[in-house]
Design the sequence.
C-alpha cells in the first residue's frame, strides 16, 4: 500500500481487536500529534505558502478526527490520557537529517510514512474490529488518511526535485520496514 515496503504482522491485528479501549486511547493521541506536527511544520516553514495552506487543511482534519475519537471515548466513560510517546514515530524521526533544506524534505517524508502506516492499520481495523461502530469509524477515516499521505508527498515534490523525493521515499521505506519488523505487536496504532 502507498509507499510501504512491508505489511503489518498479522499478530498485531489479533492483539488490537482484543484491546479496543487501548487502541482508541492511543488513536486519540495519534490524531492530536498529527495536528500538532502540521502546526509545527507551519512554525518551521512559514514562508512556504503551499506547505502552510496544506498543513492548515490537514491540521483541521486531524482535529476533526480527534474530536470523533474523544466522543467515542466519552461514550465508553473514558477520557484522554497523558502521552507516553510513540516509539514507532520516534524511531522514524531519528532518521531526519538536521541541516536545511534536507530536514524539511525528511520531515515531510516522515509525515507521509506515519500517515501511510496509520492508513494501513486503520484498514485492518475497518475489516477486523469486533464492534460495528469501530469498523465504521475506521472505514470512515481511510480516505482522509490516504489523502494526508498524498498531501505530504505532493508538498515534498513542490519544493524538491522529483527524483530526490523518490529516492528519499525509497530510503525511508527501508528504514520504516525495519522499524515495523521490530515492533512488539502491542495494542497501539503503531505498536
Ligand atoms: Fe487523522
Ligand atoms: Fe492523518
Sequence:
Amino acid at each position: 500500500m502507498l509507499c510501504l515496503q512491508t505489511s503489518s504482522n498479522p499478530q498485531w491485528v489479533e492483539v488490537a481487536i482484543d484491546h479496543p479501549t487501548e487502541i482508541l486511547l492511543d488513536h486519540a493521541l495519534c490524531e492530536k500529534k498529527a495536528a500538532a506536527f502540521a502546526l509545527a511544520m507551519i512554525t518551521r516553514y512559514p514562508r512556504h505558502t503551499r506547505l502552510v495552506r496544506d498543513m492548515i487543511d490537514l491540521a483541521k482534519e486531524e482535529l476533526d478526527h480527534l474530536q470523533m475519537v474523544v466522543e467515542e471515548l466519552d461514550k465508553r466513560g473514558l477520557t484522554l490520557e497523558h502521552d507516553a510517546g510513540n516509539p514507532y514515530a520516534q524511531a522514524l524521526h531519528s532518521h531526519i537529517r538536521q541541516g536545511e533544506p534536507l530536514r524539511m524534505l525528511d520531515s515531510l517524508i516522515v509525515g507521509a510514512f506515519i500517515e501511510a502506516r496509520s492508513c494501513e492499520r486503520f484498514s485492518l481495523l475497518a475489516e477486523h474490529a469486533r464492534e460495528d461502530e469501530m469498523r465504521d469509524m475506521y472505514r470512515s477515516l481511510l480516505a482522509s488518511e490516504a489523502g494526508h499521505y498524498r498531501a505530504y508527498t505532493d508538498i515534498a515534490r513542490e519544493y524538491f526535485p522529483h527524483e530526490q523525493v523518490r529516492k528519499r521515499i525509497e530510503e525511508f521505506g527501508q528504514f520504516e520496514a525495519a522499524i515495523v519488523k521490530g515492533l512488539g505487536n502491542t495494542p497501539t496504532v503503531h505498536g
Summary: The first helix runs from residue 10 to 18. The mean pLDDT is 96.
